Structures are given as C-alpha cells and as structure tokens.
Amino acid sequence: MNNDEHERVIEVTDLSRVYGGGFEAVRGITFSVARGEVFALLGTNGAGKTSTVELLEGLAAPAGGHVRVLGHDPFRERAAVRPRTGVMLQEGGFPSDLTVAETARLWAGCTSGARPESEVLELVGLAGKTDVRVKQLSGGERRRLDLALALLGDPEVLFLDEPTTGLDAEGRRDTWELVRRLRDAGTTVLLTTHYLEEAEGLADRLAILHEGRIAVSGTPAEVTAGRPSRMSFELPGGYFLGDLPPLADLGVCGHESDGRLVRLRTRELQRTAAGVLAWAERSGVELRRLEVRSASLEEAFLGIAREQEVRA
Amino acid sequence: MSTLAWAPAGRRLRALARAELALLGRNRGVVFTAVTVPLILPFSVGPAFDRVDLKKEGLSVGAAMMTAAVGFAFLFAVYTSLVNAYVARREELVLKRLRTGELSDAEILTGTALPAAGLGLVQALLLCVGCAVLLHTGAPKAPYLTVLGVAAGLVLSAALAALTAAFTRTTESAQVTALPLVFVSMAGSGIMIPTEVMPHTLASVCELLPLSPAIRLVRAGWSGQMSAYEALGTTATALAWIVVAVFAVRRWFRWEPRR
C-alpha cells in the first residue's frame, strides 16, 4: 500500500449531481484530499454538502464527472472501497427498536476486521447505555452512536456529515478531540459542517460550497487571507457617522450603519481601530458594544454569500 | 466462488437476520397476524371445501385446508410482514445506512427477509405435520413437489414484498398496498378455491398468477396427481415469476424515502 503523505485518497473531478426533478444540486466541483488530512466542506443549508458527500460515499452515481476514493469508483466498485471507509450519515439509520448493544453487534457483524463493540462505545461515552433502545436515546447520543459505528472497522477514510449537529458544547468538543486523535493516527477525514468554528479549528483544508459550486477553497488561513477585518461600535445619541474622520483616511473599505450601530470593514485593522479610538478619546465619546475582529472564516463565508447575491 | 469469499457474506447475513429477528419479535401486531392468520383462516374455508367435489381431483378436505394454510403463511407470515419491514427500514434510513457498509444490496434485502421467511417455513412445516396427524391426510405422495412449492412460495413472497415496498410510502399505507396481491392470491391462486375445481379457462388464467405455481406444487405433492410434464411447466412458471420479480426489484426498489 502506498502510504505516501501526498497520496490523493479522495479525488473529485468536475463532479455534478442532478436529482429526479431536474434540480442540479452539485454543479461541477473539483478538489482532492491527501492521506491523513482533515478536509471540511462548508456551506449554508442547500449548498450541496450532503449531495456531494453521498457521491463520495458511493450511495449514488454522479450525473457527470468522476469520484475516486482510495483509487476506486465508490459507486461501481463498492466491494473494494467499503471495507476501508467509515460513514456517518447526516441523520438516523438505526432501527429505533434495537438497543445500542444490538445495533453495535449488527454493525460489527457486517464489518470486516471490526474492533470490539465495547471499545468504540467507550470511545464516544455510550458504554453505560448498551441496553437502551435507540428510540430512547437523545439526539446527541444518537449522533455519538453513529460516530462509534463509523469507527468500528478502523477506516482509512472517514466521512462525517454534520457530525456535531445536535450535540451540546461538551459533546462537540469531545467529537473534535476524537477527530484530531484520528487524524494524528493517520485517518483521512472528510466532514461537512455549517459551524464555522468547527471548520476553522479542525480542518487542514476546506472548501466553501455555494449553490453547488466551490466558491473558495484552501487552508483556513488562505481562505481568510484577503478578507477584510471588522470593527463595530455604537455611537452615542447626537453623533453620526459623518462626525468621524473621513473613513477612507482610516483605511476603511466598507461600512454599514444600522441605527446607531456602525460596522466597518478594513484591511488595515490596527490603523482603523487606532483612528476611531483616537477620535473617540479626543471628542470625549464613549463607544458602546465595541468589537474589533481579525478576518475570520465567518467574514469569508458572509462575504461569499454577499458577492454571489450581487452577481445574481 | 471459494468458501473463503462466501464466509464474510454469510457472517453479514447472519448479523442482519439476527437483528431483524429481534425487531420482528418486538412488532407485536405483525407477529400476531403472521402467526395466527395461517393457523385460523383455513378453518373458515374448510366448510366451503366440503361443497366442492375434491375427491375427483384426488384431494381430501384436509389436504385442501393444509394447502390453504401454507398459502396464508406465504401471504401473512412472509409477504405482508416483509412489506412492512422493508418500508419501515427504508423510512428510518436503515437501508441507506446499511448501504454505506460492506453489505451488498442483495444481502441487505435477503438478510432482512430471512426471519420472516424462516417463520413462514416453520409454519408450513408445522401445518404439514399437523394436518397429516390431525386431519388424517397421511404423508404427501410426492414430497419433493411440496418442498419445491414451499421454497418457490417463500422466495417469491419475499421478492414481491420488496417490489410492493417500492410503491409504498409509509408502513400505514402498506396495509393498503399489500391488499391486491393478498386478495388476488386468496381468490385466484388456489388458496380458498383449488384451481382444479375451477372452469377450465378461468383455471388456466388463474394458474398464471404469481403464487399459483407454488400453491399447485404444494397441493400436487399431497395428491401425487401431477405429471412430470405438468410439474416442469409449473416449476418454470414459478421460476419465471421469481425472475420477473427480482428484475423489477432491481429496477424499482427505493433505498431512501422520497423527499
């Protein structure tokens, strides 16, 4: 087996997917994921994340383009790919009348080289729930059961479709920790999420999907680079945006005001912040709800949505 | 294929069948229908058999009732309970989840069907033994035909259940979508009325219905009145239905709920 670090474990070329009604959910996307990488597909609801992941999982055939997972077509060469992948669907997938232990036993019986069920249930904190029926589990516990079963066969490639949706803050942190440990052990992970901090904290590389196309992709740093930083504050009564020094002189490249709340976008955050604060000090003005933020994935995300709207 | 290659498939089928058996046991309504109908309904058709001349066809009332009971086992232990199971698993996204794993599509459908088919088989065996002892029908004269008929009936019932599930949106609507085959088979496939006593033209049409060949083989096994030529033709009809059903399932089966 080729364990080269740069081996392309997932290769997607000009992929498209069209549903029965003619809706084009995925419109020609191309990306690749190297062995041991965590790759995140980001996007709003309906952007095409799940439609894409299902093609990678081999659940449907693409309308156009190619998918290769571990060198095989996951739809046509199912038997070659499945023993080496683990999948967590966006929702459900377990009979509600089986217990956790029965569900794990079923899945273990269908997985070659399965680890002991108790081990993976322990890993996700469900060891104490083995006799509980699936329908009596909370939404978060069901997500964790799904994750446990995806890990049962020690997969080389893991597909996680919104793994932390429905989890509380602690469960989310535990899942992130687990994904990092898997990555460190060499597992390739492809996950979808609409939590920006999840992608920012976990992903080595990511792609932001918008209406079935990749709007931008790269490392989190690459995606946020070139995005403006933000500063926002509330002006006291009697003061208006025009009372500030000329915004262009402060390095501001865009602004919005909403009542008294002012939002500035800038590529020179320090200069903008210093200028605004110096003005406030001089004028004896107290700025409430003051926030200064470097360029983030959120800004990139919102910026893409804004740009697409303008184009449309 | 070598036994090595079959071993994992066997393990997967066992795992799925075991889970399905647990689920079957927890679905009281389905179990009640599946177990009681084939045991009780035949007695309701018993009196009707008294009025038709079965002797001429080499059939006793006991054998006719036994065949009816096996037919009911196909319809209620296997067919309707499996329509329910396939639809329920699809709507809970279980089938979709299973398809992300190592099971092949055929293994998923087969493994899900095994407990119901097993239940149908056990009922058929109990009914045969019970009738032989209680209704004094004696042993079947051509048991291999009965075995062939039971096997064909079980496989076809399961395949038709998968096909019906393809056109059924919810487990509630399964109670309606399963009815046509149940009625048509009860009336036309020789379960309530042996095709042997029907007018000739009607009988030859009814003999082409999906479950007719299986029922005919079961009955012929008891009466021993079927020529080798007839047996071959009937078996060929049964096989043709199985091929058609399997083809239709491959073509139309839905693995995910409609959205």
From TrEMBL, chain A:
MF-aspect GO terms: ATP binding; ATP hydrolysis activity
Localization annotation: Cell membrane
Predominant location: membrane
PROSITE patterns: ABC_TRANSPORTER_1, ABC_TRANSPORTER_2
A GO CC annotation given for this chain: plasma membrane
UniProt keyword Flavoprotein present: no
Keyword list, A-Z: Antibiotic resistance, ATP-binding, Nucleotide-binding, Transport
A Pfam family matched in the record: ABC_tran
Gene Ontology biological process terms from the UniProt entry: response to antibiotic
Entries under SUPFAM superfamilies matching the protein: P-loop containing nucleoside triphosphate hydrolases
Residue ranges of domain ABC transporter in the record: 10-236
Membrane topology: Peripheral membrane protein
Superkingdom to which the source organism belongs: Bacteria
Name of this protein: Multidrug ABC transporter ATP-binding protein
From TrEMBL, chain B:
Family (UniProt): Belongs to the ABC-2 integral membrane protein family.
ABC transmembrane type-2 domain sequence ranges: 29-252
Designated name of the protein: Transport permease protein
Matches recorded under InterPro entries: ABC-2_transporter, ABC2_TM, ABC2_TM_bact-type
GO molecular function: ABC-type transporter activity
Subcellular location as annotated: Cell membrane; Membrane
Subcellular location, principal: membrane
Keyword Protein transport: no
PANTHER family (UniProt xref): DOXORUBICIN RESISTANCE ABC TRANSPORTER PERMEASE PROTEIN DRRC-RELATED, TRANSPORT PERMEASE PROTEIN
Membrane topology: Multi-pass membrane protein
Highest taxon, organism lineage: Bacteria
Alphabetical UniProt keywords: Cell membrane, Membrane, Transmembrane, Transmembrane helix, Transport
Gene Ontology CC: plasma membrane
Signal peptide extent: none
Transmembrane region(s): 21-41, 61-87, 108-136, 142-167, 174-193, 231-249
PROSITE patterns: ABC_TM2
